[in-house]
Every structure is written in structure tokens, then in C-alpha cells.
Input
Amino acid sequence: MVSWELVFRASVFIAEEMGVALRRSAFSPNIRERMDHSCAITDSEGNIVAQAEHIPVHLGSFRVGVKNLLNWLSNEGVELSPGDVVILNDPYISGTHLNDVMVMEPIYVGNRLIGYVVNKAHHVDVGGPVPGSINPPSAKTIYEEGLVIPPVKVAIRGELQRDILNMILSNFKTPETAIGDITAQLAANRVGVARVRELVEKYGVDNVVNAWREGIEYGRKLALMEIGKWPRGGIYDAVDYMELGDELLPIKVSIEIGEEGVKADFSGTHEQVEAPINAVYGVTFSAVSFAIRSLMQSDIPTNEGFYSVISVMAPEGTLVNPRKPAPVSGGNVETTQRIADVVFKALAKALPNRVPAAGSGTMMNVMIGGTLPNGGYWAYYETIGGGTGGRPGKPGVSGVHVNMTNTLNTPIEIAERQYPLLFTGYRIREGGSGGDGLYRGGDGIIRSFKVLTKARLSIMAERFRTRPWGGLWGGGGDGAPGRVTIRRGGNAVVINLPSKATIDLEPGDEVIIETPGGVGGDTAQEGDFY
Output
């Protein structure tokens, strides 16, 4: 009899192979270079069986998004046959934001449905009034962010539906890039389906399905065993804030650790706002599960077994579970960071020697683009790393992506070759961006460039006004806040942008981005975080 673990581990590898296929086939640097994509395999009920080590905010949201999609299809009376592929980006179904286009295909063995393959990829532009489709701070509804794609079959029995694809591409500002990225997603799913069928041919369909079930139960048992080492009986509260103009909007959480897992209650969080910083439930669940998974020391499969021990109560109509049509583009990239921070902050009271001080707390999203002099449109997107907080017994790390992002950078050579940009600086933000202490916080990054043509720039960031919170195990210094400066006419005009802004640029304008550093810690106690 075949070992369930062998089949389960092979399934994880299939998810990884899907990601490799997607990345190598994609057109946009955001996917090809930065790896802003994620892949997973589910069983026939939509339970996560295996996922690749991709983007935390995507991966946790699959648990919500796939089941939302299956419920939508059932309610609409839509059935999926072999070779059918569904595409969507509606965040209130898929669980992130419009830029994350989700593609799902069923896995059939004969006439038997055994599961689904699914991936998400962040498309640089999905329409709307600004390059990059994240519209800070102006979007008051989701319809001011970009094209909303409800679940629709983009392929039927393996045949691409050109009319559906053309409708989508006609609303994306860079269709030449988008067609390459969408077809890369379709190809990645085909790889996943083919590899699972090979697994079935080798081991038998019942063995594969049973192995998936065993893998999920194994993940649940290990997760409960790990949580069983944590203190019981207490409720741990924390609050952190989102920046919106002159306001600071609270995100509150109460964490309870019990026999059946961890409960996170966001009662008291600020109500949803007419600005693109609301986070749909899938994002909130993803951020909570990321923080909890990060504090587990065992090698626990991140599948439905693990996710099932986490309960998230996010009141409807708040920043962490808005009602449609609230705008949510920044919720996926910034509010998700704050949710992770506040959960870490609460858990630091229960696990004081395991939780580091807060890191930069922002993805520092940069969106820029415009019309080319010879016609056509260009759009560029990237996130820029910062510093992690000091850890018990170790300093923080400089110049890395923190928490909910797991992407790489876009090489300067690639960006300059494809876009009208000239980079003027890319270095660690030394000299105090990381907080002082026995274990210093990591430093942020300085990344700067000049635009060579007229362009529109949007910034979606955080930690310009607030500082990351310090570790409860130490009293180290704060990291430096974020900052974005525009220099026009040399240094004749200097414009300091808020954390969420859109501005038109002239040729020769220089954009200087400085990301926050992490908080330092002063404790001399050796911790067990790493």
C-alpha cells in the first residue's frame, strides 16, 4: 500500500511546479521577476490540500476564495466539465483585490471530480483611472479601481473563449502584457492537472484522494499539538492603526488560545471607509493565519488541516470585512500588513520570547505609468522592502520584504529596459532607519528614479505617521518612518507626499522612496523565535 505521505509531498511539489511554469511563461516583470503569484491544489470540496511557498496574502485567501467560488457556481447552476477554466478577480469572491486575477480548473479522472488547481497572479494594471489600478486615496468604490470580473468560463472543454478574453483585455491598459500573463496562468493550471493525473495513474485514484485526506488530518493534528504548547485561558488584546489623511483608524483584535485552536476577534475595529484601504475577509483570514503559522516551530503542512484550527470573527462593515462595493485595493497590500502586526502584537503577550519587534509594516507600493510618445500605454508596479524588527537574541534584517509579501525586487536593468525610467539610487537606508537597541532593527531601503516622459505616480503605503510597535520583551528605539519625495527641476521644487497619493510627473522629475526600518530591542534574554 502506498504511503499517504509520499502522495501528499508529491502534491506539494506539483503546486511548486505550477509556480515555476507560471513564472517562466509570464510577460510582466511583476510576475516573471518579482514572483507575485501563488498556486495551490484543493480537493473536490475546495479544501486546500497543498500549496507552494509563494505569497502569504494569496495563499491564506485561497481557503476563502475557492469555497466562495464553488458556492457562487452552485448558486448560479454552473457546472464545470473537464477542460473548463474559470477566471475572476472580484475580491468579494476571490478574497484579495482586483489586481489578483484568479484562475481555477477542475481535476477529473474519467468522470470523477477529485479536486481543483488554482492560481492567482498580480496583474500590473486591470483598468481604472490610474496606472496600476490601486487608486489612492481617491477610490470611493471598487468600481473606481478597475475592471470587476465575475466568475466566468474563459475556457470550455479546453477551448479558449476569445470573446471573454477580448472583453477583459480591452479593459486592461496593457493588453499585450496581460494576454501573456493570463495564458501563463492557464498553462500553469494545465501543468497541475496533468501532474495530478500522472499521480493517479501511478498510485490509483482512491489512494491519492485518501492521501490528501490523511495529509489534511495530519496538518490539523500537528497544528493543535503545537498550539497545545502555548498558554491557555487568557485573552490577549492589541490595537494598531491605519493612516488615512489626518486620521488614524484603529484595528483591534482579541486573541484567545483554546483546545480547538486560536480565535481572533476584530470587534471594535473601525468601520469601513470610502477609501481603498478596506480588507475583504479573505485578506483578514490570510493575515491572521500567517502570523499564527509564523510562530509555530514544527514543520506543519499549510493546508486545510492547519487553517481549520483558526477562527476569525471580523464584523461585517468594518475595515477588516467591508460590504461591497467598498474599495479594497490597498487592503490586500497595506491593511493586511497592519492586521498581521496587530495579531503579532497580541500574541507577544502570550509568547513574549518568540515574537520579534515590528518590522517596516508596509509593502510600499509604487505604481507609475502613462501614454508613450509613440502611442500605447505603459504601467509599472513594484513593492519595496524595509527592515524587520529586532528579535530575541538577534538583530533585525535589513532590506527585505516583511510579513504578508514574499516577492523579489525588480532588477533595475529590467525596469530600465522596458519602461521610460532611469534609476538614480538603490541602497540600504543606513544611518538610523533601523531602531537602536541591543538587537537593532533592520534598516529600510532607498530606491530612486527619474521619469523620462510624462507619467502619473501613485503611492500606497503606511508607517509615514505611525511607528512600528516595539517588542514587549524589550524597549528598543523606533525605526524611521517612511518617506516619498519628488524633486522637480533639480532641487528647485521638493514635494513630500503622504502615504497615499497620486501625482502627475514631468520628464526629469526624480522620485525618492525611503522605506521604514524595524524597531530595535534591548532585552539580553535569548529567545526561541529562530
Observations:
- The longest helix spans residues 175-203.
- DSSP finds eleven helices and 20 strands in the chain.
- The mean pLDDT is 93.
- The chain has two domains: 4-220, 354-530.
